[in-house]
Each structure stands twice: as C-alpha cells, then as structure tokens.
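Journal club prep, notes for RB
We'll compare a predicted complex against what the paper describes. Inputs for the zinc ion case:
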Amino acid sequence: MMSPLEEIRHSCSHVLATAVLRLFPEAKLDIGPPTDTGFYYDFDLDHKFTPEDLEKIEAEMTKIAKENQAFRRKEVSREEAVEIIKSRGQERYKLGRLDDIPEGEAISFYENGEFMDLCAGTHVRYTAKLKAFKLLSIAGAYHRGDEKNKQLQRIYGTAFENKEQLAEYLARMEAAKARDHRKLGKELKLFHIDEDVGQGLILWTPNGAILRQELQNFISEELRKQGYSQVFTPHIGKLSLYKTSGHFPYYKESQFPAIPEPDQLAEIASAGCSCADMTARLEAVTSHFAANLNERVGREMISPDRVMDPTQLLDGFMLKPMNCPHHIKIFASQPHSYRDLPVRLAEFGTVYRWEQSGELNGMTRVRGFTQDDAHLFCTEDQITQEIQGCLSLVKTVLTTLGMSDYRVRVGLRDPDSNKYTGDAANWDKAENACREAAKTLGVPFTEEPGEAAFYGPKIDFVIKDVIGREWQLGTVQVDYNLPIRFDLSYIGADNEKHRPVMIHRAPFGSMERFCGVLIEHFNGDFPVWLAPEQVRLVPVSEKTLDYGKELLRQLLDAGVRAVLDEDNDKLGAKLRRAELAKVPHMLILGAKEAEAGAVSVRSRAKGDEGTVPFADYLPRVVNEIKTRALAVKAEKPAT
Ligand SMILES: [Zn+2]
Ligand SMILES: [Zn+2]
C-alpha cells in the first residue's frame, strides 16, 4: 500500500508512460516506481529524449490528467499476462518483470485510457487527481542497474498534492542549485579539480585550506579534551598488511580481485615493457587487472565503492584505502595493560578509493579523501562509554556549526544471517551499547537490522541542511574482527592476555565531503571563525589609507585574518567586491572614523551596524572567533 503522495507520484509515472507512448509509439517500457522526491520511468528508445521532448511529454501528461481517465485494476493469470504484454509489443522488459513475480502471487495490470501496465499498485482513482507535477530531467540508467545491460533513458519528475507544494519544492531545488558547492567553490576560490591531476582529486586552494584547517583545529581540540592521541602514518602500506587485515583476502575470497602477488607483478611488468619504465609498467598492470575488476563490478559481485584501483599497486605496495591497519600497528608496537585502555589514536588520514567517474561529484564524491579518522582500542566494558564519547563529539561539532537537525541510524545484525564475526553474546552487548549511546544523544534514531558490517554493529549520522536536504556523514563502527586478525591483546587485571575491542570512528566522514556539505549549508557565508577572510578594511579614499594600515596591523597581530583594500576604486565598487567574496565583516574607514579612532561596521549577518570605536570592535571580533560564534552578536553601536 502506498501513501497518498506515493500514489500520486506513482500514478504520474503511468501517465508519463502513457504520454511517451502517444508521442513515441516505438518506445519500450521498463519500470516506473515512485521515489523519495518524485517518480521516474525507464524507456528504451533509439531517439534520444531532448529537453524539448520533456516539454511536449509534460504537456501530453497534462492533457491525460484532464481526460480524467480512471485507473482500473485487472487481475490475470500468468498466461494471460504474457498475452497482454505481447499484444502491446512490450515483451522486451516486461516479460522479465513478469518473471520477477513469484509463483502464487497475484498478477495485475492497471489500465488508464488506452494504456495498460503490469503493476501491483496502488494508484489514485482518476488522473484528474494529478494536479501538480513536473518533469525534471533525463538520465541514463542501466536495466536492473547492471552495467552489462543496456542503458535506458530515465525520465525523472516530481509531483505533489497541490501546486503550492510543487512550487515550494521547485524553489528549494533552485536554492540548492544556487548554493551548489562546486559553483561556490569556484566563486570563493575554495578548491580546484584539475584534469591533469585527476578526477576526484581535490586541490585545496588557499581559501579552502583555511576552512579545512580551522575545522581540523576545532575537531582536534575536542579530541584532545577527550583523551585522544594524535598520530601520523604514511600514504602507502605493503600488500601483506592488507592481507592480514582481511581487506585483501576478503576480496579474494569473494573472487575479487586476483590482485597480484609481488612476484606476479614483476612478471607482468617484465612481460610487456622494460622494468625501468614506470608508466608502461603501471599500464600493463592496469590493463591486466582492470578487465577483471570491471567484470566483477559488472556482475555486482562487489560494489564499485569497494573496488581499489589497480593503478594503486606498485611493487607490493598500495595506496591505503583505510587507516586502520597502520593504527593497529602503532597500538601493537607496545605491550598494553588494562590500565592503558582505552587507547585512542586519531589522524586526519588521507585514503584513496576508486569511484566510477560517473559518480564523482565535486567534493562530496572523490577518489582521494582525508578522514577525520580514529581508532579506539578498549575493553568490552568500555564500549558504551567510548561510543558515547564519539557521539558527544559529533553533537558538539554539529551544534557549533548550527546543524542541529540530524538523526542517527543504528546498524544491527540481520537476525537470519550467520555471516558475522564474533560470538553472539558479544554482539548483543555491542548492539546494546550502540543503542544506549544513541539514546543519550537526544536526537531521533532508527534501528536498522541487517545494516551492520560483518565485523560489528555501527552508528551513522544523517544531517539535514538549512534547505531540508539530507546528507549522510560518517560512522562509528564496533569491530571484533581486526583485533583477532592482528592478534591484538592486553594484559588484564588477572594477569592474563585478553582481546581488546576496536572502534573505528570517522564521524564527519571526510574533510572533503564535510567541507562540501558546509559550503552548501552556509551558502558560502561562513561564521567568522571559519571564513577564509574575516575582516575587510575599506578606506573611503586614500586619505584614510594610512589609518587602514594601522588597523590592519592590529587585526593581524590579534590573529584576525584581515585584508586592506588598497585599490583606488570608488567606495561602492570596493564594498561590492567584499560582498561577492562574502567577507563577514567590512570596516568602512572615512575621515570621521579616522579622527575618532572608530570604524563603521557592516556585517553580512546584520547589515549596517553603525560606527563603533575600534578599541571596542577588536575584542568583539577576537571573541567571536575564539568562541566559534555562529551569529554576530553586535553590541549597541556607539554613535
Ligand atoms: Zn502502477
Ligand atoms: Zn578503521
């Protein structure tokens, strides 16, 4: 049973298909379900849909809605279903879809006007109920999501109960487009992606680097308060390390990827090219394994996001896809007593994972990223407390950033599966620990059976930004597996060896993704502490330039990122420039201000704040930065 809104959206996909068949009778239909934000339908058609086609199709849909066709359900036998599908020339995909319906389950068609579609329902009763819909875009989509199958054309649309809701949604989409971090990233000079460096690899330009560094400082401060130790580890590790960690044999056992032994690698390298020629060597390796890799991905044996790039392989080393093994080796480098636990090792660790180029997206889907990573080694009894620590960190950081609208998901075992490492009693404890910790957060949380990893339960975070979009951030993950694989131990109070439990945590995911989300969340209007340029001094004319220089020195000395606009432009042009750069504070310096030792403050948050003595302004901005204040707390302007 669908909700009323889902019924509207799903009925729209029937009407969409009806319209497409009127205009393109040769189109072959696949499926058209509702989505979280609308609906789509997949078509196989030699003609490539254009934006103009979308307009025509939408107009036809409006006509069909006005025709007020009734949706009629028709239950049929399997044989009759085959007949109907054939008589309509839709056997290419629909027969397969019919096969998906298990024996003994009802087979139904829904008819509206001249159109008929294999469908379980449910729908609105009449097409006249469809009053507010819009076709949005065309995208390629593989039949059954499988790259090996034909790519179909997917038409996306959205629909609501009324025109007001539709307009509201479309306005929100426009707003989202305006604050797209890729666009803002360029305008505010925050980051750059260069084809010559590689897709999905972020170059942090000076402004973006400030943003990232400020965030890292903030998170590091909080981690220090919580008793974390900072570590640094290299970007590569031996293949054998990942074999021990299981990341390797695990893939191997699931038939992926016959990644070469070092000696095989040498063989491949020497087969096709001179050993000295590094590029050719890598190419030989790449082509050899890329074929294998793509095949595995195509057959859905492994998900693309878990695939490591074969080009990462170099003489028995690989770029690290995760930091855990390195941190484990630091933990294991010394004996530990129960009194040392928990050991908390933190690193902003850069890792590399292969993503399909089609899935790359600015900073939010990349191939190299820096996790706000940490690994906690603790006793069973410390799990709850450690998870609570992780969650309270998340709460502090998100609250400071004004992101109070978020929820957590607790990923638990699938009760019907036995793929999990570790004994059931421990799992129960760890799952309870996650649940209890989640409860203390005071935000909504859901339990999701089957979402745990095979090595332990997890918690992840989904935040809602100011325009209502949800972003998945990072996770906190309990792990029973790696301590076994690396044979980690500590000496307990009983003088016996015990196995520690590991917790992986990267609550914000990666600095790249988190900054991308923040850019959109703030629409580039960062709070003063995060803003790459915090204060712009704007002399009205060159007469107050020297005064500006004096204030600039004082600001810089106080640790404020200030810039003096020394150009000879008109005041309006200077203000406009600062406006475009989204500098949080502009200080306008006229003759009167210079004489009085004052500044005329204009802030992005509050607009014109009047003239204040510079001696009052300076401590105020310093305090705003130090306290990582969100909104400007202006004192009453002195006149
Ligand atoms: Zn339907
Ligand atoms: Zn880890």
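Talking point for the session: The pocket of zinc ion (ligand 1) is lined by residues 10, 14, 110, 117, 119, 121, 123 (CB under 6 Å).
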